[in-house]
Amino acid sequence: MGKAITLEFEDNSRLSTLYGEHNCHLARIEEKTGSSFTVKGNILVIEGKKDVRETAQQIIVSLHKVLDQGVDITMDDVDGAIRMADFLDAPRQENITERKDFTSPEHQIRTRNAIISPRSVNQSLYIDALRNTNMTFGLGPAGTGKTFLAVAMAVSHLLEGKVEKIILTRPAVEAGEKLGFLPGDIREKVDPYLRPLYDALGHMISIEQTERRLENGDIEVAPLAFMRGRTLSNAFVILDEAQNTSPMQMKMFLTRFGENCRMVICGDPSQVDLPDGSMSGLRHAQNILKDIDDISFIHFTADDVVRHPLVGKIVRAFDKAER
Prior knowledge:
Elements: E1 5-8, H1 15-19, H2 24-33, E2 36-40, E3 43-47, H3 50-68, H4 75-84, H5 86-89, E4 109-110, E5 115-116, H6 121-132, E6 135-139, H7 146-159, E7 165-170, H8 186-216, E8 219-223, E9 235-239, H9 247-254, E10 261-267, H10 281-289, E11 295-299, H11 309-322
Parallel strand pairs: 6-10, 6-11, 7-8, 7-9, 9-10
Antiparallel strand pairs: 1-3, 2-3, 4-5
């Protein structure tokens, strides 16, 4: 077994949040790492093989740092910390050569209502790309945080005054981009297609703030067809469900890029809803833009799914069937 690791915490009052109700957080870490915890007041003893002990220690320390920032720990946070641990992620990440502190500010997104930390190595790479690259493609299955993190970064840029507005767009494939038969104004017409983006905004700055900024134009939502002919400047622009664009639509959208613009293109190349035989603009762009500087491509996998663990299993099953 080797020598145990002993952690001593100064503030005993918050350990119940760190450990979880009936120590359920510790139990999850034990299950996933093979470690063993013993709680003695404000002291936590970690036992197991050397690498297992160190991994468990890394998870506990990272969660405690999140707690220090005033954020309550949930089981999702625990699963994220476990996923970030080297024993799960580093072996398949050729460009991750050392342990990193993913709770440090450069790996986080801060908005008025939330501090968002990455819950997988690819999410960390994505946050870095969103912060440092003018155009970022987030590619991969549902539930990996592509759109959520993009909206969080957009809100962060808006609140810090780095951009003047957020523009959210999505191809309305189900209605063939012809929305006139739907009741209401343009925003009401596209609401069903952009609801996931609204939900993410509400998490970052509250529903009331979102409504206010929609009314004053700080946040704009529009179907992709309405981007034609515009130059998007001083804006953080997010194209969601990009796999359902045609190559012509994708070219039209990407060439809207103006001064002080950030663009994020999110999509899952495996879930194209276009008519059979139609080429996806996302796949086309991926093939022809991959060697251009200042364009980042971040590829997510089933291992990055941060929704219910069942979603990851479903994604893996479909991937296996397609192969």
